[in-house]
Model the fold of this input.
Amino acid sequence: QTVVTQEPSFSVSPGGTVTLTCGLSSGSVSTSYHPSWYQQTPGQAPRTLIYTTNTRSSGVPDRFSGSILGNKAALTITGAQAEDDSDYYCMLYMGSGTNWVFGGGTKLTVL
Amino acid sequence: EVQLVESGGGLVQPGGSLRLSCAASGFTFSGWWMTWVRQAPGKGLEWVANIKDDGSEKNYVDSVKGRFTISRDNAKNSLYLQMNSLRAEDTAVYYCAKDYYGPHHWGQGTLVTVSS
Done:
């Protein structure tokens, strides 16, 4: 069974740039997987940041961007702010039947 | 504004059943796929099931196949998740979401606890 992989944790300084990635235990991520990214703070529902690789959801600041980097999907935060300190999840479309699979999440610390 | 409000969570014994509901407003419910996602305490997100706009297609994660049933009533703008043969590992916050290339707009969730 293919697993969606993410870095367990990452840290970035305020104002800095960070790239989180989303890969597969077997194979490469492409736009065909329709990668999406979600932000979640403790006790809150997830918030959709990016869908279909690089489309920002309504109201999401433009410091968040999505792309394919090499064989992985990527979420880049340019000019990180304190309020970006959150958990980030990617999700990939694995085809009919299995449908959508989340990665294990990345805990991002801004300090 | 899209609003999704889940209800029906609570404490249930292993082997028991529970039916979750999600009341939708602010969009044309009958025109969209809908999804259930869950999150066990302290764990990550898990996609559970989705249903086509007209209810003609349903998909499930392997761990709930044969136990959970997703359904909808477009006349009532409501989404449901019937959960049978519940296990301790089904304990989670259950979120309903409006689909657009995956869950897009999210409700606030309802907690299901399976314990004796």
